[in-house]
Specification:
Elements (H helix, E strand, L loop, with lengths): L3 H9 L4 H11 L5 E5 L4 E3 L2 E3 L4 E5 H4 L34 H18 L3 E3 L4 E2 L8 E3 L2 E3 L1
Antiparallel strand pairs: 1-4, 2-3, 5-8, 6-7
Length: 143
């Protein structure tokens, strides 16, 4: 809703749903922070992080890294090269990610078809949490 040009493109071409899902996961990462423990001493940019240290990984920040994403602050529902880490990576990759993608595609496609004029009815309010982000609610209307 905050990017009307992108919304118009998605409404006009539902084949964008798969790339839209990936881009929305990157652009507004639901899980912003995750903690891990260092298994072996490691040096990163001249700083030694000792074995056993707890570190916080900022998924939201990584998903906006200009070294990885061209124009990372711009929502682009056609973005093809999108190696976001919203579902983590490696051995910690979310086992539910494939199901989440299927559910998102089905619900987004259904909304686009059944409520093509959906619009915000009120400004969304976020939950006061910086780790797992979300909305208190999303009031919409069909115009």
């Amino acid at each position: 809703f905050r990017n009307p040009g992108q919304l118009a493109a998605l409404r006009a071409d539902h084949s964008l749903v798969p790339t839209a899902i990936e881009e929305l996961m990157r652009y507004d990462t639901p899980l912003q922070l995750f903690e891990r423990w260092v298994l072996d001493d490691i040096e990163i940019d001249g700083t030694t992080i000792p074995r056993g240290a707890e570190i916080a990984m900022l998924f939201g920040s990584a998903n906006h890294d200009p070294a990885v994403f061209a124009d990372p602050g711009r929502l682009d529902l056609t973005r093809r090269d999108n190696p976001h880490i919203s579902f983590s990576a490696g051995i910690h990759y979310c086992i539910g990610a494939p199901l989440a993608r299927i559910e998102l595609a089905a619900s987004m496609t259904a909304l686009l078809r059944q409520a093509p004029t959906l619009a915000l009815a009120a400004e969304p309010a976020r939950k006061p949490n910086f780790v797992i982000r979300g909305l208190e609610g999303l009031r919409v209307e069909v115009r």
